[in-house]
Amino acid sequence: MAFQPRYPILTPQRFTIISSKRYCPTQTLGTTALQARTHLAAFHTTPVRAMKGARVTSWGAPPEYMTVPDLPAPLPNQLQLKVLAVGVPRAVRGRAECKHPSAFGAPLPFDPSADGVGVDEATGDRYFINTLAAPLFAERANVDRSQLVKLNAAADPVTVAALANPTASSWMALRCRATGGCQGRTVVIVGATSASGRAGIAVARALGAARTVGVARDPDTLAKVEGLDDRVLLPAHPDEPLVLPPSIGPVHIVLDWVGGPAAVQLLQSAQTEPGENLQYIQVGGLAGHDTLVIPSRLINIKPICIMASGVGSLSGEDLKREMPGLVNTITTMRRPFEVFAAPMADVQSVWNSEEAQSKRLVLIP
């Protein structure tokens, strides 16, 4: 194999080097060349820092903790942050299994992380790192400054990392997809006992919903969910219809993390307000149904608007615009579900643990 120089080589006439001093490719030799040689020598004598991280090496298996390539110096438009906390929501687990669209075609080893919290060690400033802005299952990350939201001093990194993804799904749905927002309206949360559903209740309240209705299957768990005005049980058997009681009144927005036949039954039984659309927003598929079969008569006799909120239906500009408000809301929220914080070094053993399945896992490098 031919020798490949790691750094630019000086020629008899001119040289090229990239550094913080921004040497120009057309500078001639002389004193500057000596400076460049000194600069290169410093590079060669500086020890390379090893960095630890977690990577998926086989689709569907837990990530492995390993030594990963160290980062280059950040670009002028980037900050290099020490990673403090990274959440593991369903989307990250889906990416680790190559079942999430954002992971399709990705090579192994693969970092399935989505978002998290980091600190600029030079200033002490802490930041929320936007979704897919950088690989975060590592000790450090280079992140574009435009993808960072500065946190206030009181913000807890673990809480922000745990709540960011489940809170974002409802925030983006209500802020970017629902026409007119939810101020003064009734919002029905289907899948209210899930992490995203619980966060959705808090978000709807924060955005001014007049009434929140939770729909879920387990009566004992649903009874413990905070922030609800009404609770409705999903039928125990598929043949039983889901019926919203008339006492709930007109429904304006439905956020559905479950999907399937129950969604159609809900739309059939929901009251509507004259002059207002019943806005159904699909944000998840916990029931595992790939299709939603809507009778044509139903959308003929009711003013129903059907949409989704997620990858493809939201733009990068939507995320950039909404993240500061979302993060600010998260920092003032109570945790609507339990959180399990674990060292990233233990990722293989905790990934599928009972505690990680019943609580929101957050990894700490």
UniProtKB/TrEMBL annotation:
It comes from the Eukaryota. One of its GO terms (molecular function) is oxidoreductase activity. InterPro entries: GroES-like_sf, NAD(P)-bd_dom_sf, Zn-ADH-like_protein. This is NAD(P)-binding protein. It comes from Aspergillus sclerotiicarbonarius (strain CBS 121057 / IBT 28362). The lineage of its organism: Eukaryota, Fungi, Dikarya, Ascomycota, Pezizomycotina.
